[in-house]
């Protein structure tokens, strides 16, 4: 997987694409990215500027990723606590 392009590069590419001096395909070739990649950057920029809509903003994507990571951590911790509770419950019930 190629390294992600810096945000400033993406912003500048979107600005150039919006100017409309060159067709998207030619601009994408000049920048060394695919046309679909440039189109995705433009769609994401539109979502970030307008907010709402069908597409998540960059901030919302970042927040969602953090919430998913936190949820996974809490689920693991909960599983550990359940196992520990079952272990100690079994220890207290069985005769010695």
List strands and helices in order, with pairings:
Elements: H1 7-19, H2 24-31, H3 35-50, H4 58-93
Helix pairs in contact: 1-3, 2-3
What key attributes describe this structure?
about 75% helix; about 100 residues; elongated
Mean pLDDT reading: 90
Q: What's the total count of β strands? A: 0
Q: How far apart are the first and last residues' alpha carbons, in Å?
A: 58 Å
Radius of gyration: 24 Å
- Range of helix content: over 70%
Structural class: mainly alpha
Shape: elongated
**Assembly category:** single chain
| Tally of helical segments | 4
Give the H and E element order.
HHHH
Uncertain runs are: none
Could you explain the architecture of this structure?
- The protein is mainly alpha-helical.
- The chain has helices at 7-19, 24-31, 35-50, 58-93.
- 76% of the residues lie in helices and 0% in strands.
- Helix 1 packs across helix 3 and helix 2 crosses helix 3 (35-50).
- The radius of gyration is 24 Å and the shape is elongated.
- The termini are far apart.
């Amino acid at each position: 997987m190629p390294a992600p392009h810096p945000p400033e590069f993406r912003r500048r590419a979107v600005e150039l694409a919006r100017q409309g001096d060159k067709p998207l395909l030619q601009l994408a070739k000049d920048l060394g990215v695919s046309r679909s990649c440039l189109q995705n950057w433009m769609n994401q920029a539109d979502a970030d500027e307008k907010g709402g809509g069908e597409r998540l903003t960059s901030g919302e994507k970042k927040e969602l990723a953090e919430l998913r990571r936190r949820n996974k951590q809490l689920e693991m911790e909960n599983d550990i606590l359940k196992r520990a509770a079952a272990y100690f419950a079994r220890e207290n019930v069985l005769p010695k």
